[in-house]
Amino acid sequence: MDDEDEVSKSLYEGGHWVWNEEAEELEFISDLRVVEESLELLPTSVANVEFKDDIDLLEQQKFRKYLQRKTEEIDFVTLQDVKDVVLFTAPLAVMSSSLIKILHHCTTERFLRALTLYTQYYLQISEEMSHRTLELETKIRTENSDKIEMKYREDLEDLRLLVAKEYCIIILGEGSLAKYHHMGVAKTGSLSKKDAVLFETLVKFSIQIVWIALGRVCYNQIEVEINRLFKSEIFNSAEHKLNINYYKHINERERCVLLGHCVNQGQKLTTRSPLQNEVFCPRYIDFRQFGIGTIKYPGLSNRLRLLEIYLTQPEQNFEELRLSIGILGLPRSKFDIMLREIKSTLASAASSSSGVARNSMARRASRQSRTSRKSIGSVRPEKLYPDIYLPEQTEIT
Q1: Is 89 within the bounds of a domain?
Q2: For 143-147, 186-190, 318-322, 391-395, which range has the lowest pLDDT when averaged over its residues?
Q3: Neighbours of 311 (CB within 10 A)
Q4: Quick check: is 291 in a domain?
Q5: What is the three-state SS of the chain?
Q6: Which of 30, 225, 284, 304 registers the highest number of CB atoms within 10 A of its CB?
Q7: Torsion angle, alpha carbons of 306, 310, 311, 312, to 10
Q8: If you average pLDDT over every residue of the chain, what do you get?
Q9: Which domain holds residue 213?
Q10: Neighbouring C-beta atoms of residue 53, cutoff 10 Å
Q11: CB 226: neighbour CB atoms within 10 A?
């Protein structure tokens, strides 16, 4: 055998063939271990990257020309619009082809919708529970209060389960996501460093996507909660960085509602993330929740049908159904290129005058009783998008 024969290798050597259901053709899968790419970023440094927030007009024109989706006369904000803005404002140091491809996968699409839906409802209930705690100082708690808060807890647990089921598909590398699994398709060796960087980057991008989809409000609270979902309270890097200990400052009743009863801390090395806890929670779970978005079930309850709509319906249909997930489904004309709300001059003037009035009221409140202060604090500004309401579990068609 000459040197040329020794060097040359067959194109289909060291692998096996599988049938690709999507492409309907045979696909060759190499069993050779892929050499891990040199990564400049460490998993711990991804959390410190910053997205550009102030985009000048020249950059906006570039975005409109090369990346922005072509809009129609009557158009609505979509999740793809939000992803485009996030990818455009992201630092190049954390960008990779794997990340971009996984962000545009259908499973990740459902995952991001579920995460945005959960976070919106979490912020909504967190605010509501704070008001209820204040009201307890002057009002008597009734049996109906327990029922209402139990409903809040069940809603949050079901929404966490929606996020968890899509997240499990991603981390298990099911179907066409196998190429992103840390063991690869051939399962010959773990690329742990590459997987850690991809995981941290996906979490960072998910936080930014959710924040923009919710109208750029409560960034710190969103960051802390999403990090808790994926990493547990013990390994919540965002909470450690901000040094706020948010969950230690809320009372037991609020904690029970916001975190649920499937909290299994365990030891540091054996603890599960809240998402995994929801999957293995001993509470009653309608088995159809695990298939929502991928399996068509007949005779769904109003609650499950609504969750299915949130996960699968195009954003263009939300207006007719009077629904939205954050700004998703709202008219595109209400926002600028970077998806910031366009406020009219009249609204700005009203906001400014109301701000002056609030400051004046706050000064007067400092000299008034606690009851007066709470009544002033209960005045809330007009919301960009409506609150979420989930039907009771027993409500059927």
Answers
A1: yes
A2: 186-190
A3: 19
A4: yes
A5: CCHHHHHCCCCCCCEEEEEECCCCEEEEEECCCCCCCCCCCCHHHHCCCCCCCCCCHHHHHHHHHHCCCCCCCCCECCHHHHHHHHHHHCCHHHCCHHHHHHHCCHHHHHHHHHHHHHHHHHHHHHHHHHHHHHHCCCCCCCHHHHHHHHHHHHHHHHHHHHHHHHHHHHHHCCHHHHHHCCCCCCCCCCCHHHHHHHHHHHHHHHHHHHHHHCCCCCHHHHHHHHHHHHHCCCCCHHHHHHCCCHHHCCCHHHHHHHHCCCCCCCCCCCCCCHHHHHHCCCCCCCHHHHCCCCCCCCCCCHHHHHHHHHHHCCHHHHHHHCCCECCECCEHHHECCCCCECCCHHHHHHHHHHHHHHHHHHHHHCCCCHHHHHHHHCCCCCCCCCCCCCCCCCCCC
A6: 225
A7: 90
A8: 81
A9: 43-334
A10: 9
A11: 23
Please report whether residue 350 resides in a domain.
no
**Global pTM value:** 0.79
pLDDT digits (tens, 9 = 90+) for 268-323: 676 778 888 888 888 888 999 999 999 999 999 999 999 999 999 999 999 999 99
Of the candidates 219, 200, 199, 198, the residue with the CA atom closest to the CA atom of residue 208 = 219
Cα(67)–Cα(60) distance, rounded to whole angstroms? 10
> In this predicted model, which residue has the larger pLDDT, 199 or 153?
153
Q: What is the dihedral of CA 309, 315, 316, 321, to 10 degrees?
A: 40
Beta carbons of 293 and 43 less than 8 angstroms apart: no
Is 227 within 8 Å of 249 (Cβ atoms)? no
Is the model more confident about 78 or about 397? 78
- Nearest to residue 397, comparing CAs of 291, 297, 290? 297
Q: Give Cβ neighbours of residue 341 (< 8 Å, ≥ 6 apart).
A: 215, 327, 334, 335, 384
Total domains, the chain: 1
Torsion sign, CA atoms 347, 349, 355, 360: negative
pLDDT band at residue 120, thresholds of 50, 70 and 90? very high
In a domain, 9, yes or no: no
